Amino acid sequence: MSPERIDKVASTIILGVAGLIGLVVLSLLIYILALGIPHISWHFLTSEAESFAAGGGIRDQLFNSLYLVVLTLIVSVPLALWAAIYLNEYAPDNQATRLLRLAIEVLSSLPSVVVGLFGYLVFVLKFGMDFSLLAGALALTILNLPILTRSCEDALRQVPYLQRQAGLGLGMSKWRVTTKIVLPAALPGIITGAILSAGRIFGEAATLIYTAGQSAPLISYTDWNPFSPTSFLNPMRPAETLAVHIWKVNSEGLVPDARAVSNGSAAVLIITILLFNLVARYVGHRIKRHLAK
Amino acid sequence: MIVTSFGVTLLAGAVSLPLALVVAVAITEILPGKVKLVFQPLIELLVGIPSVVYGYLGLTTIVPALQRLFGGTGFGILAATGVLFLMILPTMTSMTIDSLRAVPQKYREASAGLGATRWQTISRVVIPSARSGILTATVFGMARAFGEALAVQMVIGNTTVMPTGLVESATTLTSVLTTGIGNTVMGTAENNALWSLALILLLMSLVFNLLIHLASKKGAR
User: Fold this and answer.
1) Which of A207, A278, B65, B101 could link A116 by a cystine bridge, Cβ 3.0 to 4.6 Å?
2) Which residues of chain A lie closer than 8 angstroms to B120, CB-CB?
3) Are A18 and B22 inside 8 Å of each other by CB?
4) What is the DSSP string of chain A?
5) Which CATH number describes the domain made up of B2-220?
6) Where are the domains of chain A?
7) Does domain A40-292 have CATH number 1.10.3720.10?
8) Can you give the pTM of this predicted structure?
């Protein structure tokens, strides 16, 4: 065969296979949504989960998931930002810094079960937090920190070096250059990174089984005192998240309508993550345009 | 268990590598730019889908399909491979796209200038120069597959035996951890064994990291 013919054939095969894969993946996505969306109703989103009977909702699980994301971000964003600022702006290029980067990289590829077990040993048992939202949030922080640090660092690195030089040339201190020039310019990237990582935390389950627990005790949404054990704001209560809920009703659950519950929950998870992605994009664009003005 | 863990990981990696490569090549080299605008967010979304959802998807689609094809329960290594394949394909594809895009445009122009067809350019210039990136993507995907717990646990059947076939129930390091830790008492031999498994898992993830480093260093040279 002539090279031209081979080229044609190869291109056709590549396009065909790629198209096929795209189609399969897309249809799977649509399949989950099509199964789940009919099951999503106001009742499903706002009623409690049932342990044995059919017709349970996911109110508590959904709230726990969102609350956990907020708690985790509160802990991990400042830490990741500090680490990124240090690594990108201050750290000298020596053996110690390289070791630190290596450590972050290793941390980012830890299996999530291992992180969960670590959280169980350290936060749940050693620090006596029991199964609680706080223990879950701290374990998720470990999981989230390396990824978030990297995306913050990327955002900081994208700020042109000239801007820093201009600031330094005007006699600003390095710290002021960092906070007044570099940080504002890197803000869209940082926020986008944080929202994307929020999507990842939202769906995490393996880490949470042994840290935040698998039970959702009765909580009251009218109790605003975060120290009361039944308050929905109390970070020391055990909490089952949406992703854990899907896993649990499928592998250990006794509910007769496990299929319907997990169909609905899976669709809610995917839609939420889709929203996180879209919001991240939108916010990134918006702030960029705002800064450009 | 270790055998199953490796088996599942290697199988998933081996299936995903060519397919991820094909999709990445199609997106970066062949399809026009507008398609990229659609594909990029789609792949990002797929990367972000929680592993539990992939596991559940496997439970509802792959397991019954295998049951019909091969008989038996449908749970087993093949089902786990399928789920992991779906899970790591988007990750590997997006990393492969990045590494293909990092190949300087000049290489392609030079190759075209020598009269090479597109396929010759892709197979002899672009892919070889992106090799280390593709290798890194593969190891990264396999590391993720190796450490995945819940998705695998949901479809693999969970019986601690030496696997004899692809559609027999089996168990991996991670799946036995998820089911076992909560049901054993701290300090007993069984519980200690589970913690040792966690240690092995930790060490394996370090090994994968080392491999990624080697792969990317090889490319830098």
Assistant:
1) A207
2) 3, 7
3) yes
4) --HHHHHHHHHHHHHHHHHHHHHHHHHHHHHHHHHHGGG--HHHHHSPPPSSSS----HHHHHHHHHHHHHHHHHHHHHHHHHHHIIIII--SSHHHHHHHHHHHHHHTS-HHHHHHHHIIIIIIIS---S-HHHHHHHHHHHHHHHHHHHHHHHHHTS-HHHHHHHHHTT--HHHIIIIIIHHHHHHHHHHHHHHHHHHHHH--HHHHTTT-S-----BTT---TTSTTBTT-TTS----HHHHHHHHHHT---TTHHHHHHHHHHHHHHHHHHHHHHHHHHHHHHHHHHH-
5) 1.10.3720.10
6) 40-292
7) yes
8) 0.80
